[in-house]
Amino acid sequence: MYDIVIIGGGPAGLTAAVYAARYKLSTVVISKETGGLMMYAADIENYPASKLISGVDLTKNMKEQVTSLGVEIKEDEVVEVSKQNNIFTVATSDNKYECKAVIIALGTQRRKLNVKGEDIFIGKGVSHCATCDAAFFKNKTAGVVGGGDSACKAALLVAEYASKVFMFVKGAAVTGEPVNLERVKGNKKIEILYNTDVAEIKGDKTVNSVVLGDGKNIPLDGVFIEIGMVPSLAILKEIGVDADDKGFVKVNAGMETNVEGCYAAGDIVSKQLKQIITACGDGANAAFSAYKFLRLK
User: What is residue 296's predicted lDDT score, i.e. its pLDDT?
Assistant: First the structure.
């Protein structure tokens, strides 16, 4: 029986673990992949005290701090969360963990484009991770689908290797951070195509072109999909956690959900800004609320 089970080992979950340990709450973190999407960030330039740090290194630092405080991190996938008689049961494929409070820090998954060819060519020219796969496109032509900040960062990273990068932007403007937008527009390798939909991804054994919404065919060697994120909520249905119309968890200022003893933190939460630093703040708040619930009520 734990005081708290933290589901998710990204910045929100790891920060929650640090605070829970300092509050002397028995705690375990269960995460399919420690670090979550933070692991795939090539260059992080907006995390205080680090002018530039990779996602891998920041994950390592956070993980070391958590384990130094005696919190165990279980690399496993949670398949179900249930509640009975004020006790939560968190189940993985092989184990069950009981706790008095649970913090949901599952983060998000990358949104799919859902066009013909996307699933067929995953790993064969279609990628959702520029950090993982950009280097495979040295001296090749690649496309990045998306018009937000993640798309800008992906285009800039891919351009370090590729000879040509197309940005396929659905709207009339790119909405990345000004510093990244300036870098994209100043990069001669990157060409932005506005008001453009990718309707199909084509190829033989690997990707060789995309078909746009107007029927135009653009020859290229790979496509990076950067069109946002969707929350990972499937396991929360059993306990009835409320979500907004986009599927993100509703919380109050203390990161409390509508289910007593259940808290949420990080990108899975309905909020304006989804960044590593805001996820850390959420995790700290969630752990404090859980502490009050367990020790001060």
Answer: 73
Beta bridge partners, 103, equal: 6, 263
C-alpha span between 93 and 237 (Å, rounded): 18
Low-confidence ranges of the chain (pLDDT < 50): none
Closest by CA position to 37, among listed 10, 6, 73? 10
First vs last C-alpha separation in the chain? 19
Residue 57, CB-side half-sphere exposure with 13 Å CA sphere: 10
Q: Which two tokens stand for residue 51?
A: 């002018």
Q: Return the pLDDT at 132.
A: 82
Q: How far apart are CA 153 and CA 226, in angstroms?
A: 10
What is the Cα Rg of the chain in Å? Answer: 21
Q: Which amino acid is at 223?
A: V
Kind plus residue range of the DSSP H or E element containing 142: strand 141-145
pLDDT digits (tens, 9 = 90+) for 153-179: 999 999 999 999 999 999 999 998 899
Report yes or no: 26 and 6 within 8 Å, Cβ to Cβ: no
The residue count for the chain: 297
What is the tens place of the pLDDT at every residue in 192-250?
999 999 999 999 999 999 999 999 999 999 999 999 888 877 788 889 999 998 889 99
How far is it, in rounded angstroms, from Cα 57 to Cα 180?
A: 22
Take residue 21 and report the two structure tokens written for it. Answer: 């340990």
Q: What type of residue sits at position 3?
A: D
CA distance 41 to 56: 8
Note whether 52 and 28 are within 8 A (CB). no
Q: Which residues are 88's β-sheet partners?
A: 83, 99
Residue pointed to by tokens 């990628």: 127
Report DSSP state, residue 121. T
